[in-house]
C-alpha cells in the first residue's frame, strides 16, 4: 500500500491532548448537602434558600430518613408505591433568562422515585431496616410483610431527580447541554416539597396507629435532606447553550378512565419538543387525608393500544401495550415497572432525536389516546410529557 503521508485532523478540528479534552468535559462533583429540615406530616415547608447555582447543576437528590412504627393493627391495604409516597409532590420553579417563569419539575414523589428506573437498570434507592430493596419491577406492589404490618421500620428513601433527559451512563456527555447554568437562572430556583402522612402508605387497619420519629430512635422527627450534584466543566462551561427540560405530571381520577371504551383521548399533549411520554395507570386509594393522592394498585391491563396521535395518525403505530413496554425496556436495558408505559424519542441515546412537537401546525391535534380495557370507578392514570425548551448546543 502506498504511503499517503501523515494523518491530518479534519478541517476545523482542534488538536487536543487527552488531558485537554478531559479538562473541557469536566466531571461531576457528587451530591453536596444544600439544605436539611425536619419532616412534619401534611406540610409544605418553605425552603428559606434558593438553589445555589455557583456551578452548572446536573441533578438534585432528596433523602427522606426516619423511623415509622406501625402498631395495634396492620395496614389493611398498602399503597402500591409505599413508602416512597411519603413525599407527595416535588416542585422546582424559577425564572429563566429566555423563557421567563418556568416550573421545570412538578412530579409526584412516587413517580420521581421510579423515573431513573425507567431509563437505567438502577433507579432510586429504598432501604428498609438496613436492607436495600430490589429495583422496581413487574408487578409493582408493596408487600405488607415488607412494609405495612405491625413492626418498626427504619427507612432511607433516596429520590434521584435528573434535570435533563435520563440517558444511559455511556451517553452522559450528551446530557451536559441540559444542565442548569448560572447565567440562565441566576438566583431564582426555588424547590418545594409536599409531605404526606400515614395515609400515604395505605389504609390503616381498625385501631391501627402510625408513628414517625427520627431514624434509629424512638424520639425526634424524620429528616429530609436536599443534595445538589454539580458539574465542573472548565472552559466548556462558557461554550454551552443549554436547553431546559420540563417534566410535569398530571393525574386524572376516574372520568375518562372509568369505563370500557375504544379510542379514548386521555389527554392533549403540549406542542413542544418531546423526549419522552410516560403514562401510569392503576386504581386510586380511598380514605386518604385531604391533599394526599396515591395509587392503591398499578396495573398494565387497564390501558391497551395506547398511542401518541397527531391529527388522527399515530406517531408510533402501537397495537399492543405489552409489546411496546418490552421494546422500550430493552432499548434502555431496564425493566419498566408495573403500571408504567413509556414512549421515548431518544432511545437512540441522542437527546437531539426528540419529536419536534414545536413544529406541529396550529389547529392540529397532538394527543395521547388509548383503549380502556377494564372498568372501575377508581381507575386512574397519570401522564408525564417530558418537553425541551430551546436547542442544546456545545461549542469547542
Q: Which SSEs are present, and which pair or pack?
A:
Blueprint: H1 18-25, E1 27-38, E2 57-71, E3 75-78, E4 87-96, E5 100-108, H2 109-119, E6 125-128, E7 131-132, E8 151-162, H3 182-185, E9 190-195, E10 202-204, E11 209-213, E12 223-232, E13 240-241, E14 244-253, E15 261-268, E16 273-284, E17 295-298, E18 303-310, E19 313-314, H4 321-331, E20 340-344, E21 355-356, E22 366-372, E23 379-389, E24 393-394
Parallel strand pairs: 5-14
Antiparallel strand pairs: 1-12, 2-8, 2-11, 2-12, 3-10, 4-5, 4-9, 6-7, 6-8, 13-24, 14-23, 15-22, 16-17, 16-20, 16-21, 16-23, 18-19, 18-22
Number of helices: 4
Would you identify the CATH architecture? Sandwich
- The secondary-structure element order is HEEEEEHEEEHEEEEEEEEEEEHEEEEE
Instruction: For the record, give the distance between the C-alpha atoms at the N and C termini, rounded to a whole number.
Output: 35 Å
Structural class: mainly beta
CATH fold descriptor: Jelly Rolls
The CATH class label is Mainly Beta
Count of beta strands: 24
| Fraction of helical residues | under 10%
List the uncertain runs: 1-14
Number of domains: 1
What is the rounded Rg?
A: 23 Å
What can be said about the biggest beta sheet?
9 strands, mixed
Please state roughly what percent of the residues sit in beta strands, choosing from under 5%, 5-15%, 15-25%, 25-35%, 35-45% or over 45%: 35-45%
Amino acid at each position: 500500500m502506498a504511503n499517503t503521508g501523515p494523518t491530518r485532523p479534519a478541517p476545523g478540528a482542534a488538536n487536543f491532548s487527552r488531558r485537554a479534552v478531559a479538562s473541557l468535559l469536566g466531571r461531576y462533583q457528587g451530591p453536596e448537602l444544600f439544605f436539611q429540615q425536619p419532616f412534619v406530616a401534611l406540610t409544605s415547608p418553605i425552603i428559606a434558600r434558593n438553589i445555589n447555582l455557583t456551578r452548572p447543576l446536573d441533578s438534585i437528590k432528596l433523602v427522606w430518613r426516619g423511623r415509622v412504627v406501625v402498631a395495634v393493627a396492620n395496614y389493611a391495604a398498602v399503597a402500591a408505591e409505599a413508602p416512597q409516597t411519603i413525599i407527595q409532590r416535588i416542585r422546582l420553579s424559577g425564572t429563566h433568562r429566555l423563557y421567563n417563569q418556568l416550573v421545570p419539575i412538578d412530579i409526584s414523589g412516587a413517580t420521581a422515585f421510579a423515573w431513573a428506573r425507567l431509563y437505567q437498570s438502577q433507579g432510586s434507592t429504598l432501604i428498609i431496616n438496613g436492607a436495600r430493596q430490589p429495583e422496581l419491577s413487574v408487578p409493582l406492589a408493596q408487600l405488607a410483610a415488607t412494609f405495612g404490618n405491625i413492626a418498626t421500620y427504619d427507612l432511607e428513601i433516596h429520590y434521584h431527580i435528573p434535570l435533563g433527559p435520563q440517558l444511559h451512563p455511556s451517553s452522559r456527555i450528551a446530557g451536559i447541554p441540559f444542565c442548569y447554568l448560572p447565567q440562565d437562572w441566576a438566583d431564582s430556583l426555588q424547590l418545594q416539597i409536599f409531605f404526606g402522612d400515614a395515609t400515604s402508605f395505605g389504609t390503616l387497619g381498625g385501631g391501627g396507629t402510625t408513628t414517625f420519629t427520627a431514624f434509629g430512635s424512638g424520639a425526634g422527627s424524620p429528616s429530609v435532606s436536599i443534595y445538589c450534584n454539580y458539574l465542573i466543566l472548565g472552559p466548556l462551561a462558557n461554550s454551552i447553550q443549554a436547553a431546559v427540560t420540563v417534566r410535569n405530571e398530571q393525574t386524572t381520577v376516574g372520568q375518562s378512565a372509568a369505563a370500557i371504551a375504544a379510542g379514548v383521548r386521555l389527554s392533549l399533549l403540549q406542542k413542544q419538543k418531546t423526549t419522552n411520554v410516560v403514562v401510569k395507570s392503576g386504581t386510586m386509594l380511598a380514605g386518604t387525608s385531604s391533599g394526599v393522592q396515591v395509587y392503591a394498585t398499578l396495573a398494565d391491563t387497564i390501558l391497551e393500544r395506547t398511542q401518541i396521535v397527531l391529527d388522527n395518525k399515530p406517531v408510533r403505530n402501537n397495537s399492543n401495550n405489552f409489546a411496546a413496554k418490552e421494546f422500550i425496556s430493552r432499548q434502555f436495558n431496564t425493566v419498566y415497572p408495573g403500571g408504567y408505559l413509556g414512549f421515548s424519542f431518544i432511545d437512540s441515546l441522542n437527546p437531539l432525536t426528540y419529536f419536534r412537537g414545536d413544529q406541529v401546525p396550529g389547529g392540529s391535534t397532538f394527543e395521547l389516546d388509548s383503549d380502556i380495557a377494564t372498568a372501575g370507578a377508581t381507575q386512574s392514570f397519570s401522564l408525564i410529557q417530558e418537553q425541551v425548551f430551546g436547542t442544546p448546543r456545545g461549542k469547542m
